[in-house]
Design brief:
- There is one protein chain.
- The protein is built from 11 helices and 9 strands.
- It is α/β, with parallel strands linked by helices.
- Strands 1, 2, 3, 4, 5, 6, 7, 8 and 9 form a 9-stranded parallel beta sheet that branches.
- The chain is globular.
């Protein structure tokens, strides 16, 4: 049996401190995680003047605007290059989601990212998807707040330059998502409707949903992880601790058997 590909989503949970990011990479490399994932953006290129923070962000992070929040919690291009090299040193795969075209070109050309991740918020962002469609790399397509019709549109653009290795990630875009919102049966529907590999990007608390998703056929599991659930920042409270993530890895490997 092919083992589930497990991604520890650090995202912005380093709070803009590369030393925290490197420490998390080192800890996660010891517990059997397949990849760690970060996020990269030029905030001024992403946020419009009328953008606003989600409720969970307002509760957990005190910046006035999404632009201010993104600036506080970002790492520079140069620091991401340092992180990529650190991941190589720690023998764990570096992944990154880009939220604007300049960041996407950087992680592709300068960091030679092995897998593209398209976030739920960017799965209809035409310039990003068209760029990825012209590359010959595996793709993870997240689907939070997306209709089946919209997923079909994204897939048609991605496959326009030739059939791609795409895994569709079921995702519920609540932080955290409650058990009765998770709709894990959608995994089966996605596989049947799009004849695609499936995975699960989890925003729930605890490990049960991820384990259930694996049993239902998810080939990729992505879950947020933090160094401190009480730290200030948008995603910390909806993230696992590293200790909880280690238990998740052990439980997934057991469920595979």
């Amino acid at each position: 049996m092919k083992s589930t590909f497990i991604i520890a989503e650090i995202g912005p949970n380093h709070n803009g401190d590369i030393n925290i990011a490197k420490s998390m990479v080192s800890d996660l490399s010891k517990i059997g995680v397949d990849a760690v994932k970060f996020q990269l953006a030029i905030p001024e290129n992403v946020y419009s003047d009328d953008s606003f923070k989600a409720d969970y962000q307002k509760e957990n992070e005190n910046s006035k605007t999404p632009l201010d929040m993104a600036k506080r919690h970002k790492l520079t291009f140069k620091e991401h290059l340092e992180l990529k090299n650190w991941c190589s040193h720690e023998k764990i795969m570096y992944l990154c989601t880009a939220f604007d075209i300049d960041s996407l070109k950087f992680i592709d050309k300068e960091l030679d990212i092995p897998i593209f991740k398209i976030s739920s918020g960017e799965n209809l962002t035409k310039d990003l998807i068209e760029y990825i469609a012209h590359q010959n790399k595996p793709i993870l397509l997240s689907t939070g707040m997306t209709t089946y019709e919209e997923i079909g549109i994204s897939l048609s653009i991605l496959n326009a330059q030739g059939s791609k290795d795409i895994t569709i990630l079921h995702c519920i875009s609540n932080y955290p998502a409650s058990d009765d919102e998770l709709n894990l049966n959608t995994l089966k529907l996605l596989k049947e409707k799009f004849k695609s590999k499936i995975g699960y990007s989890d925003h729930s608390l605890g490990n049960e949903a991820c384990i259930a998703a694996v049993i239902m056929g998810a080939e990729v599991i992505e879950k947020h992880v933090t160094f401190d659930q009480n730290a200030e920042g948008p995603d910390h409270k909806a993230s696992s601790t590293i200790e909880e993530f280690e238990q998740l890895v052990l439980s997934i490997r057991r469920s595979e058997k």
